[in-house]
Design brief:
The protein is an all-alpha fold. It folds into four domains: 4-107; 169-292, no CATH class; 337-483 and 495-504, Leucine-rich Repeat Variant (Alpha Horseshoe), CATH 1.25.10; 508-597, no CATH class. The chain is 66% helix and 3% strand. It is built from 32 helices and two strands. Strands 1-2 form a two-stranded antiparallel ribbon. Strand 1 (265-272) and strand 2 form a beta hairpin. The longest helix has 22 residues, at 86-107.
């Protein structure tokens, strides 16, 4: 029940909110929001917060207001941290997002950055302020600073720009590293020296690459000097190895390599040789680290084409990028192949490297992609490849994701191993599990398992088991899966039923043959299932002779002697009956039953 006091309060809030939205300025709404938040009138504060958002404020103006009132900005953050009221907290987060957007817009504004670069050549006070603004611009400032260094009309500014460049700090490293591809030697000198002064290890690989590959003795000497400023110990390490280490750091999302947080995207930097300038490609943050890991692996291979570990890591990073579900970046270009194409082209050595990493990281998606690639074109020796003391594919049989286990077992079985290995029984067990997997049994919260996948694995397991049975593989003993195969003769999926019958036909034992006969005789089964079962019974009888009991023999005889059943079914039953090679008494009865004399 509403009382009078509550009604008055609601009306007051409504009037204040309406007034705030239509009569007050953005600054008034901001100040009132802060005031009522501070005194604990959260109902009124919520109204003014909503009014701020309803006015669609300019992000830079919102940022300016927050900077004019640092204590008020602190109140906003406190509301978000303490969450005193759900609605107010939600609105406060939206206001903070707008402020952060304003911060990004202002710090990346090309006009402001250009002005600040020119201010570097002004008064000492202006120079200090300009450096601070350029540091705030971070990687975006580097583009315009390098442009200025390549502009001969601005030579008088160069000493100040060179002085300021390393002060941009860590955010400058990615664009500076890309700009090392410039052919302007004087600019390259300044980039090398700036990287040394910035002093972060992510520059080391690029500097070592110059020592190993650049023709200029001056540049090699400067690169050596810059490395000594950062970490002299790496001078003995090849550039390929350093790029690989950097790629691993990206792959594992090292915090020191994270992009700035005030944007919902990240930048991958490139050097345009024709335009002689830097350009950036905006990419989704969800896979920025994986894309950078791929790039560093590519540089590793440029440094040393024989550095194989970079290939395995590149493949893992590509699969890891794909799992995000985000479309690949524009710089990949149209027709860029998917990870699986590269994986199936790669040799088993690199695939096993990627698989070992995925298993160690417990990354089911990467492991699954690599195993599927191995299954496509790898033979027995390739599948049992060792990475150190480990056999990654065999290890995958014990992985905690069922799709990975199933794919590993299918890949091993498909290779038709000829030499015994300790886990052969486990392969049979997993194939049997996959065969019996149905959509109804799904209880998976990972999002990687569904009914379609369950059916697909059941079918693939059945196909590979049939091939093993046909070729009488000496290593993978399917008799251990007999119970599962017998159960599969009653499966709701026709393909699985028929496969089960064909596999059982090649396994010895009365229970195998009798389950095939039961499938053939079951009137509830469709005609195609029954005919397929009789065909399997025909094979079983030829391979193992008659193992049926009298009851089933009589039932088959009834079908053969009946004139009312489908002729095709009768013919299939007759063929199976003949293959059983029964005593002549039954055949005599069949002949005499049709005789008219």
């Amino acid at each position: 029940m509403f009382n009078g006091k509550k009604i008055i309060t609601i009306l007051a809030v409504g009037l204040l909110t309406a007034g705030a939205g239509f009569a007050q300025s953005l600054e008034d709404n901001w100040n009132d929001f802060l005031h009522y938040t501070k005194i604990g009138r959260l109902d009124l504060a919520t109204g003014y917060a909503q009014a701020i958002l309803d006015s669609a404020p300019n992000p830079v103006e919102m940022l300016n207001l927050s900077e004019k009132n640092p204590q008020g900005y602190a109140i906003l953050l406190r509301v978000i941290d303490s969450a005193p009221e759900a609605k107010l907290t939600e609105l406060s987060k939206e206001i903070l997002d707008i402020i952060e957007q304003g911060r990004f817009v202002r710090r990346t504004d090309p006009q402001i950055i250009t002005q600040e670069i020119r201010r570097l050549s002004g008064t000492t006070r202006g120079q200090i302020a300009a450096v601070k603004r350029l540091q705030d611009a971070g990687e975006y400032a580097v583009v315009y600073m390098l442009d200025a260094l390549m502009d001969n009309s601005r030579k008088e500014e160069w000493p100040n720009i060179i002085w300021a460049l390393p002060q941009i700090g860590r955010d400058a490293i990615r664009p500076l590293a890309a700009a090392l591809q410039t052919e302007n030697v004087s600019v390259k000198v300044e980039i090398i020296q700036a990287l040394g002064k910035i002093g972060y290890p992510q520059s080391l690989a690029y500097l070592k690459y110059i020592i190993e590959k650049d023709e200029s003795e001056e540049l090699r000497t400067l690169a050596n000097r810059s490395i000594r400023q950062i970490d002299p110990a790496v001078l003995t390490i090849p550039a390929a190895e350093l790029f690989y280490r950097l790629a691993e750091n990206y792959y594992y999302h090292a915090q020191s390599l994270a992009p700035v947080e005030d944007a919902n995207f990240a930048n991958v930097w490139f050097w345009d040789k024709n335009e002689r300038k830097l350009f950036r490609e905006k990419v989704d943050k969800n896979y920025f680290n994986e894309l950078m890991a791929m790039r560093e692996c590519e540089w590793s291979l440029k440094a040393d084409p024989g550095f194989g570990p970079a290939i395995g890591l590149w493949l893992a990073a590509y699969f890891k990028a794909e799992v995000t579900g985000v479309a690949m970046p524009d710089y990949f270009g149209p027709g860029h192949a998917e990870a699986m194409v590269y994986a199936t082209t790669a040799g088993p050595e690199y695939l096993h490297q990627a698989l070992e990493r995925a298993l160690k990281d417990r990354n089911a998606y990467v492991a699954l992609g690599v195993i599927e690639a191995l299954a496509t074109n790898a033979g027995e020796k390739s599948l049992f490849y060792r990475v150190g003391p480990a056999q990654p594919l065999v290890q995958a049989l014990a992985f905690d994701d069922r799709a990975v286990r199933y794919s590993a077992a299918i890949a091993i079985a498909a290779a038709a191993p000829k030499e015994n290995f300790p886990e052969s029984k486990l392969v049979t067990e997993i194939l049997a599990q996959a065969l019996g997997q149905t959509g109804e049994q799904i209880n998976d919260k990972s999002g990687m398992w569904n009914e379609e996948l369950a059916d697909s694995y059941a079918l693939r397991a059945a196909e590979v088991m049939l091939e093993l049975a046909r070729t009488r593989n000496p290593v993978i003993d399917l008799s251990a899966a007999k119970d599962s195969l017998i159960n599969a003769t009653n499966d709701k999926r026709p393909e699985i039923q028929m496969f089960a019958g064909q596999i059982l036909a090649r396994l010895d034992g009365p229970d195998a043959q009798r389950s095939i006969a039961a499938m053939a005789l079951a009137e509830t089964n469709p005609l195609e299932i029954r005919m397929a079962a009789f065909a399997s019974l025909d094979i079983s009888a030829k391979l193992h002779a008659n193992l049926l009991d009298d009851e089933k023999i009589d039932a088959i005889y009834s079908l053969v002697s009946s004139k009312e059943i489908d002729p095709q079914l009768r013919s299939a039953a007759a063929s199976a009956y003949g293959a059983l090679n029964l005593p002549s008494q039954k055949v005599k009865d069949l002949i005499l039953d049709q005789a008219r004399s």
